[in-house]
Amino acid sequence: MKVQQLYTKCLAEATYYIVSKGETAIIDPLREINPYLEMIAKDNAKLKYIFLTHFHADFVSGHVDLARETGATIVYGPTAKAAFKFYEGKDNEIFKLGDVSIKLLHTPGHTLESSSYLLFDSLGKAHCLFSGDTLFIGDVGRPDLAVSTTITKEDLAEKLYSSLQNKIMTLPDDIIIYPNHGKGSACGKNMSKETYDTLGNQKKVNYALDANLTKDGFVKRVLEGLTSPPQYFPKNAQMNKLINKDINQVITDGLCPISVTECIDYLINDSALILDVRSAEEYTKKHILNSIFIGLEGDFAPWVGTLIKNINQPIILIAPKDKELEAITRLSRIGYDNVLGYVSGGIDEWETRGIITNTVTCVDAFSKELSNSISFLDVRKHAEYNDNNVKNAKHIPLDILHQETTKLDREQKYYVYCAGGYRSVIAISILTRLGFTNLVNINGGFTQIIKNNIPLTKCKKNCGACACSH
């Protein structure tokens, strides 16, 4: 028996590959299936099952394409409904795989069909639980994503409590918990950076598994502090119930070189968005007017899904050479399938043709230019801002920047910062596209600011809220 966790950092997502006696199973596959096919071929095995823990909201799964290519059976938990052929598993149903077995545990709460899969080794001993978004390391799945006219987030939270108490906490303490997500995913509030743990340890450190926590107490804890889910979540969840465009076709269509002349035509007709996926440093030095920056270097796919509202938006890429395929693949993971192509020759060809490019004004955090008299714009998350910030900084988190631009003075000069400089450049690209012209990026973000003498809300020397410059 082999169990392999395949972790994708950009999505903070874990897929699982299990092989036993020439038979394999994959749990929660990503959309691109070729890596899985290669693993199966290398093991000289046959894919028997594709298990889904639920209809994912934060990425588009490759289950339909994978089943078509291999003949494997797609398995969902009870109550699941979809446009493709699948097997609706029953609670406590056993699936044989080589000389091991996998038991489906219906664990509703995150969604109604949410299920976990308990793996037993060849001796019949419980080895690990693939817990999906029911139980994370340090947290549980948020219960507000599957709300409908007939069920509330409170209803789902109560179901989640029952699933944890009656299905998961009764399992042996030594089993390994393998969740679907880790730190950075918006599917939970406070996940650990660790991607697996024993159930016994989670009972000690995970608030949701506190044996003394009542149902009412659990519901209150799990619902408090929830922010609105990213706008692409319901769109991805719906896509996962349908038969989508073949991933190989998505990639073929996107890998299309577009000339500078063609790109200009798209811009004139406002029929495509220019998405620059190079590094923040490269973008600030030169970029195409009105292009949006979201670099491959950071949490690329989640920020695309959060900030580009139209999932069918026609996109033209400005990408580093030989990174076009990576960009298209990562976009397809969240259902942004309408990539028209990439600018042939990139930004260099744009300049070669004598067309003016834009720059972003940047300043070092240690510059004397930064003082009490200037206006700062903080685009970090609420928790980051509340932890500490530049005194009197205007705060608008990047994820809601589009909706909050009326709070900004278009005539005002803003010095923009995030934690390290990635999100601030995204913010500047968005605001520039909306007509703001007086924006300065602070290199290194708050990480560098805190080393300087800029007054902070919470003093670096822990003397409390102050305006001093220690």
From TrEMBL:
CDD domains: POD-like_MBL-fold (cd07724), RHOD (cd00158)
Domain called Rhodanese: residue spans: 268-359, 370-458
GO annotation terms (biological process): glutathione metabolic process; hydrogen sulfide metabolic process
Domain of life: Bacteria
InterPro entries xref list: Metallo-B-lactamas, Mito_Persulfide_Diox, POD-like_MBL-fold, Rhodanese-like_dom, Rhodanese-like_dom_sf, RibonucZ/Hydroxyglut_hydro
Signal peptide segment: none
GO molecular function: hydrolase activity; metal ion binding; sulfur dioxygenase activity
Keyword entries, A-Z: Hydrolase, Metal-binding
Alphabetized PANTHER family for the sequence: PERSULFIDE DIOXYGENASE ETHE1 (PTHR43084), PERSULFIDE DIOXYGENASE ETHE1, MITOCHONDRIAL (PTHR43084:SF1)
Protein name as annotated: Glyoxylase-like metal-dependent hydrolase (Beta-lactamase superfamily II)
Natural source organism: Tenacibaculum adriaticum
